[in-house]
């Protein structure tokens, strides 16, 4: 808005008022005319009127001088310097009174003075420095009310005031702290209401909302969630009904209006229906790509919950994944073509959704034939991703798109390693180097994660958090690969075990005392568990590596120091099981290490391991039966399906440690585990104890009895021979019969 535009602010309703004020100021309106033809670089008429403005003694004179200034300046002639001189002459006091006045002179509509005040502010706000001025910022609540004020929609003065208001607010939004001030001043709600009212300027309201959401999404939703949801409902309904090109424009807008929390179900229905119509049609890339990006944003925020069950939903999901795979192959298979990274990254998100649904056993949206077909299609797309990553040089390793490509490959390898085995093995050296690079520059890796989210999904990453390091993305796949000889040898050769040990120790620090574990994402603990699984694979398949690589000694020390406190923590039983079992298996291989020769740390570790192993089962009375039955303890019931393999492996590993560590049997006796174990077995019905449990218990008891005479005596005193007979534990019965 230029200063000369201020003269139009009042329109015809203000003409009589202007003449009146000019007369009161002692200035004739005809005095303005010569100024209109001034062409000098220094406008003497403007200088004279600016002087009159500075010397004005009251509102009447200031108002009249201001109108003369507006006539003395042409719209295209005003520059920043002139604008600033006008501001210096006017200041904020006069526009402040114009905005807040409640009584207009006779013959002037009450909104005309406010319109002039807003016009002045709009002029000043074209200077970024003035747009951030406190006197402008404190007008935000007043300006916001103008957006929803009622009045004649055809009133030119009101329309002008609305335009000027949007100009002011848009200028403020462009300053560094402007969005925060607008949100705090209630502008988001006002913009939502203005858009939903579809009055004059509602399109400007939507544009400004988009800008604020892009700049500060979380704060916008915190301050105005109900209003933003109302806008989302309106946009979703428009999207579902649109039959013209507007539906493609809405595809670009809608991702910004999806909330960081739950998306209303009616919006999901409308969005899915609209996308189904778009993607089911023959489209050009500029029409299809925004739709794929919107679908990816929904997949990222809602998983598959936005897709209806039944035949239509399964067909739609299959179509989505199919289109995504085709787009990925077209983009990555042809060397030298420019890759639309934002579109391909969106397709990666849709492929992840396809992987999740293809591997879901219960309540999957897909039928088995569809799964088979999609796995085949995704395999080809993953092949294209591998081909792309093979071309990535060191100079590109920190690019967000490379991170996104490694992410989708990690998601695939987490579920499928048998196909593309040759290609995956060829890529493993790159993946290890890439993961190592990002691990050593962890801060940059986290920033890359945010850039990936910004690239295709959303400005501020709502929904499930994208992991902030490449190694965590690759852990599940490496867990599978370490079982196989070929891939495992490559990983070992490239230094992956050492990197994993360092990573585990670094992640473990986040869970140690002094850190608030309640704010840690679940991915940290899941990553630690997956690391344990990889180490378990290496213990079994590459025991020599555990013995010779110093990093595993450091790992063992950390496990021994950590388990005693870990087993006491509520809700972390699964992680404790992983740590205990891994430590017990490693102790067998490192039994000659000084750290395991009855040191306080080793004794604390084995005491905690005994606690984990011994508390899994209890005697539980059953109605109508004289004898109790062996049952899972309450803490173990909910996680036993994930825990039982670790528990049995831990029992076996403890059994193997007893003959290797002479101090362990006396320590177990002092803990009263063998006595309590026999007591437990004697108090329950033998029929309630499964054969595999009997074998596990007998293994521990036999090794303890063989290793230590006092253990044998304690077991005899606990009716060990009788219990062994009841459970047909021949080895234990024979051992206890010996002196």
Automatic annotation (TrEMBL):
InterPro entries, sorted: ARM-type_fold, Neurochondrin
A single cellular component GO annotation: neuron projection
Gene: NCDN
Pfam families: Neurochondrin
Protein name: Neurochondrin
Provenance organism: Bos taurus
Family to which this protein belongs: Belongs to the neurochondrin family.
GO biological process: bone resorption; neuron projection development; regulation of postsynaptic neurotransmitter receptor internalization
């Amino acid at each position: 808005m230029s200063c000369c535009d201020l003269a139009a602010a009042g329109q015809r309703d203000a003409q009589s008022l202007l003449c009146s004020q000019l007369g009161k100021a002692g200035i004739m309106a005809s005095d303005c005319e010569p100024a209109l033809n001034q062409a000098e670089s220094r406008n003497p008429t403007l200088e004279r009127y600016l002087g009159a403005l500075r010397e004005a003694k009251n509102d009447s004179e200031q108002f009249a001088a201001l109108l003369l200034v507006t006539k003395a300046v042409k719209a295209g002639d005003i520059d920043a310097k002139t604008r600033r001189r006008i501001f210096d002459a006017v200041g904020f006091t006069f526009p402040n009174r114009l905005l807040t006045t409640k009584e207009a002179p006779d013959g002037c509509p009450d909104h005309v003075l406010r319109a002039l005040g807003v016009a002045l502010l709009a002029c000043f706000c074209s200077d970024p420095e003035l747009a951030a001025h406190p006197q402008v910022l404190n007008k935000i609540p007043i300006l916001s009310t103008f957006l929803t004020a009622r009045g004649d929609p055809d009133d030119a003065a009101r329309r002008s005031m609305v335009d000027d208001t949007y100009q002011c607010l848009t200028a403020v939004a462009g300053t560094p702290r402007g969005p925060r001030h607008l949100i705090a001043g209630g502008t988001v709600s006002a913009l939502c209401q203005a858009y939903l009212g579809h009055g004059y300027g509602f399109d400007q309201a939507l544009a400004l909302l988009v800008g604020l959401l892009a700049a500060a999404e979380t704060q916008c939703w915190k301050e105005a969630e109900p209003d933003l949801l109302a806008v989302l409902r309106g946009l979703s309904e428009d999207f579902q009904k649109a039959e013209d090109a507007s539906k493609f424009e809405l595809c670009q807008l809608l991702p910004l209006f999806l909330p960081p929390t739950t998306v209303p179900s009616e919006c999901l229905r409308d969005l899915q229906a609209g996308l189904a119509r778009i993607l089911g049609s023959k489209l050009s890339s500029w029409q299809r790509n925004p739709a794929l990006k919107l679908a990816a944003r929904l997949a990222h925020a809602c998983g598959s919950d936005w897709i209806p069950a039944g035949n239509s939903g399964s067909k739609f999901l299959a179509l989505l994944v199919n289109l995504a795979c085709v787009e990925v192959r077209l983009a990555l298979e042809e060397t030298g073509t420019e890759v639309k990274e934002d579109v391909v990254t969106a397709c990666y998100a849709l492929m992840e959704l396809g992987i999740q649904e293809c591997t879901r056993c219960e309540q999957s949206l897909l039928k088995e034939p569809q799964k088979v077909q999609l796995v085949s299609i995704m395999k080809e797309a993953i092949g294209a991703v591998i081909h792309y990553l093979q071309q990535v040089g060191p100079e590109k390793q920190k690019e967000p798109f490379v991170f996104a490509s490694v992410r989708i490959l990690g998601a695939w390898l987490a579920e499928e390693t048998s196909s593309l085995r040759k290609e995956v093995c060829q890529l493993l050296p790159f993946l290890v180097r890439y993961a190592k690079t990002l691990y050593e520059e962890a801060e940059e890796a986290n920033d890359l994660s945010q850039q990936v989210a910004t690239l295709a999904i959303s400005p501020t990453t709502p929904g499930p958090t994208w992991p902030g390091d490449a190694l965590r993305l690759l852990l599940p796949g490496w867990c599978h690969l370490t079982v196989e000889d070929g891939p495992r040898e490559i990983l070992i050769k490239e230094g992956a075990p050492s990197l994993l040990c360092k990573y585990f120790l670094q992640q473990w620090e986040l869970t140690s005392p002094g850190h608030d574990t309640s704010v840690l994402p679940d991915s940290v603990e899941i990553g630690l568990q997956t690391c344990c699984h990889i180490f378990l694979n290496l213990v079994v398949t590459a025991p020599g590596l555990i013995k010779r690589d110093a990093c595993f000694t450091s790992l063992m020390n950390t496990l021994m120091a950590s388990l005693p406190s870990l087993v006491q923590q509520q809700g972390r039983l699964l992680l404790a099981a992983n740590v205990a079992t891994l430590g017990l298996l490693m102790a067998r291989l490192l039994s000659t290490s000084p750290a395991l020769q009855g040191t306080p740390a080793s004794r604390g570790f084995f005491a905690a391991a005994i606690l984990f192993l011994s508390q899994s089962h209890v005697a539980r009375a059953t109605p109508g039966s004289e004898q109790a039955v062996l049952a899972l303890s309450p803490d173990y019931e909910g996680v036993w399906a994930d825990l039982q393999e670790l528990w049995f492996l831990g029992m076996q590993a403890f059994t193997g440690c007893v003959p290797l560590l002479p101090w362990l049997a006396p320590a177990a006796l002092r803990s009263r585990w063998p006595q309590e174990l026999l007591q437990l077995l004697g108090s329950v019905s033998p029929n309630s104890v499964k054969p595999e449990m009997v074998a596990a218990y007998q293994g521990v008891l036999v090794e303890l009895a063989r290793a230590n005479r006092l253990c044998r005596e304690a077991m005899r005193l606990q009716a060990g021979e009788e219990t062994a007979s009841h459970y047909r534990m021949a080895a234990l019965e024979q051992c206890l019969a010996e002196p």
